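Review the following:
>
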Amino acid sequence: MEIGKRFHDQAQSVSCISGAAGLFRTSDLNDLHHEHNTVFQGEDLQRTIIHLRHNRRIVFANEPVWTVAPGDWWEWVRQRLFGWYPGFIQQLPNMVRLLFARGHGWRLRYEMAYNIYTVLSDLLKVFSLVVLAITPGVRWWLLVVYLLYLAFELYSWWVVRVPGTRSRAPVAVLLVYPIYGALNTVLRTLSLPVWLYLRFATGVMRPRRTAADRVPA
């Protein structure tokens, strides 16, 4: 995450204001409010993408803020399954628009392409893990997949220090991180039917763009 923040900030390619707080200029919100669909899930990501599409400058500010994090596993699952990930899927069209928008660097385009790939590939990843788990002759490939993803995290774990110290994160954090990533992949996949239900059945995530849809002040 620390490497990711530095990457986004230096390239001005922050696709989502990641963390507890996102700050926007009131004038920018007034200028661009008509492009927002008024759906709460993913609204910070949508606002950020809209700003980037209009060549507004987005930066990461490494400042402490007060937030309320999930207090247990169920709250964590609910946050991602009913909030974060349906909102992430909802922004797929905006990611495609930003990917092909003019005037942006390769890092931002790469980031949008990776986000699109993530949405499209999650179902295949989860299906593959299930097949590996239930097929006796190939279960050992689960260890190979785990070690591969662990290798991806080694460089980050080696170079990033705990803020305010010269210490690395505990080795246990490194060993658990691929499992944490797999859990998020499963939750993103499960959030697809949640998004479909909220978008088309209940209408909670139905885009509202016209004056008739707006709540009177």
Remarks:
- The two ends are 39 Å apart (CA to CA).
- The chain has eight helices and no strands.
- The chain has one domain: 2-62+71-209.
